[in-house]
Amino acid sequence: MPSRDIVLDIETQNSFQEVGKYDPRLLKISLVGLYDFATDTYQSFLEHELHKMWPLLEHADRLIGYNIDGFDVPVMDTYYPGDLTRFPTLDIMKEIEKKIGFRVKLDDVAHATLGVGKSGSGLMAIEYFRRGEIEKLRDYCLQDVKVTKDVYLYGQERGEVRYNDRAGRPVVVPVNFAAVGLKPAVNLTMPF
Length: 192
Prior knowledge:
globular
C-alpha cells in the first residue's frame, strides 16, 4: 500500500522584515506546493485555492517538510478552519537539530547529501508573486518540494543525511525518519 505522506513547502506574499517581527502567523500565503506519495504527483495551490488542499492534508499519514513545525504549519494554520498544529508532522530540520544541536539550512543539507540544492530564496519567491510571475513561483516552490522529498528519501533509505561544516568537510548525521510524527490520532478536524 502506498504511503499517504505528503511533502510540502509554502511561499509567502510578505516577509518577516515587512511585518516587523518573527511571527509566522502574520504572513500571507502566496502558494503551497506539495508532493503526494499516494498518487506520486506534485501539486500546487494559490491562496484562493487552499480549500481544495485541506482534504489532502486531512487524509495524509503525516506532513513532511523542512522547518514545517516552525514555519509552514503556523502560517497555514491561520487559514485552516480546524487546528492544523494537531496534524502529524516530520520536520526534517528539527530532526537534524536534535542530533547536532543547531539548525542547518535545507540548501546546505541538500548540497552535501544530494549534490543539488534549492533554486533560489524565499525573497525571490515573494518577488515572483508580486510581479505576477505565478509559473516561476510555482516552479521555484515545487523545486523546493522535490529537494525536500529527495533529502527525506535519502535519509529514509540510508539512515543518514549530510551537511558541510564551516571548513567544508562533510558531516554525517544519523536519522531515523520511519516513525517520526506518526501518531494514531485521526487527522479529520473538519467534516469533509
